[in-house]
Amino acid sequence: TIIRLQHEFTIQVSPEIAADLDRLKDYLAHKNEIPLNQIRHIQILKRSIDARQRLIKVNLKVRIYIEEDFIKETIVLPEYPDVSSAPEIVIVGAGPAGLFAALRCIELGCKPILLERGKDVKSRRRDLKAINRDHIVNEDSNYCFGEGGAGTYSDGKLYTRSKKRGDVYRILELLVGFGATDQILVEAHPHIGTNKLPGIIAAIREKILERGGKIYFNTRVTDFEIKNSEINGVTLLNGDTIATNKVILATGHSARDIFELLYQKKIEIEAKPFALGVRVEHPQQLIDQIQYKCEVRGEYLPPSPYSIVKQVGGRGMYSFCMCPGGVIAPCATSPGEVVTNGWSPSKRDQPTANSGIVVELRMEDFAPFSKFGPLSGMYFQKSIEQRAWQIGGETQRVPAQRLVDMVAGKKSIDLPVTSYKPGLTSVDMTTVFPEFIHHTLQSGFKAFNKSMKGYLTNEAVVHAPESRTSSPVRIPRDWKTLEHVQIKGLYPCGEGAGYAGGIISAAIDGEKCAEACIATIKPNTI
Ligand code: FAD
């Protein structure tokens, strides 16, 4: 007897069954004693891979439609009213925080004026090519700066440590509404990929412009007008000033000139701990072998990620922003420095796997830079990036060493070609890092190899540094109004201000800042 038309089950099946809806249907019919011909549809609601045992399983939450047709729900974007003549809010920075702040402004009836120092997603590509091929770093247009911010040319991992599932789901749904695959609502560890992100960002831009918002590219903010502890306007690089008493500041963790500006103007900021280390590249096949405990991954499993944390001599050392089937990118934002990070295409089909492996830093580590006050962490970070540039050969070539050689403390005689396009310079990492970081990395990698046997291999190459893991500065804000603790009308927002760490959390913070700001213009809106 059929009691309900829809049934939900949480099951564990082999990767082969999980990948084939017909086999899954057979399995569910048999297991639950449902006549096969009564099952009209199976909808997968959640999917995750459990690779802890030798026999890999896929955890699925499924909904079975019995004698009832499945009607696919389409994700509908919120109603965005025309805001051409609505009250204006200036947003500095068009990263995830700035873009989602702008969308929320429109949704709640305000007009966003987005100011972005970089170029639109398409024009930005030319500058990425110039870094990779000609070693030229454009200070306004690079892997961190430009439309979509640091998240545009990334792996587009969408997982977050945020416990607010509702907020996370809302952002994921908006991304689907703007063109992301709806599989991001199903996967336990969703990602979008570098090839798909620019289209989504462009769709967000079109919506903002269509509903009456404004976006100005190539527009760097260089100063803030402040009167009686209230924001009065922003000054642009060309000398123009935009009068406003509402500014959402979402300039990201690489906007060092903004941190310098705040410091010079005696606007309160604080140093904050972050993490720093290297980016390691392995053959993807090797990571698959370690994680899936098999010779070859096979067609039913995705390129494996890994995540690892160890305590080494009282310090945390962990993998950060791991990119399966990905590429290491030159992410400097100024000439004279080398910075690495990673990206992956949506299929994660590159032959290499890379991950940041970073050491937790503490405030006392910044002591040699204490004369810079709240910018001490930023100067510590910058000093390592500049040293890497010098040691690498004063181009975007990156200091590199075979992982086994780094652990053994000897320079590599030769280096294989890696995915990092500008090239490698063989160095001894002791010349790049302070002793405590180098030593922690050496010991930590040995500990990693105990958990992931085979990780320590001659084929793995360490690239230095991975230094932009999170902001080295916090811009303090009132926990309730989200305004800067001193400056009325200034809303520090997103990763650069220290309130987010990734695409999703930056987008959530952008929405929250827009709501807080609008609450002062149109009370009772939310
Ligand atoms: P940002 O994205 O940094 O945006 C700030 C924007 O402000 C930039 O566009 C910048 O040009 C602009 N700006 C700066 N100064 C000024 C100024 N003075 N005037 C005007 N505009 C200015 N996170 C994930 O969650 N998943 C990933 O897979 C992932 N991969 C990454 C890969 C790479 C290569 C990089 C670089 C980052 C990656 N991240 C990833 C991190 C993620 O991109 C950031 O956490 C996120 O973009 C932060 O958002 P944000 O809006 O706070 O700041």
UniProtKB/TrEMBL annotation:
Q: Which residues form the FAD dependent oxidoreductase domain?
A: 202-269
Q: What's a Pfam family in this record?
A: FAD-depend_C
Q: Which residues form the FAD-dependent protein C-terminal domain?
A: 273-469
Q: Per its record, how is this protein called by name?
A: FAD-dependent dehydrogenase
- Identify the species of origin: Aquimarina muelleri
Recall the taxonomic lineage recorded for the source organism: Bacteria, Pseudomonadati, Bacteroidota, Flavobacteriia, Flavobacteriales
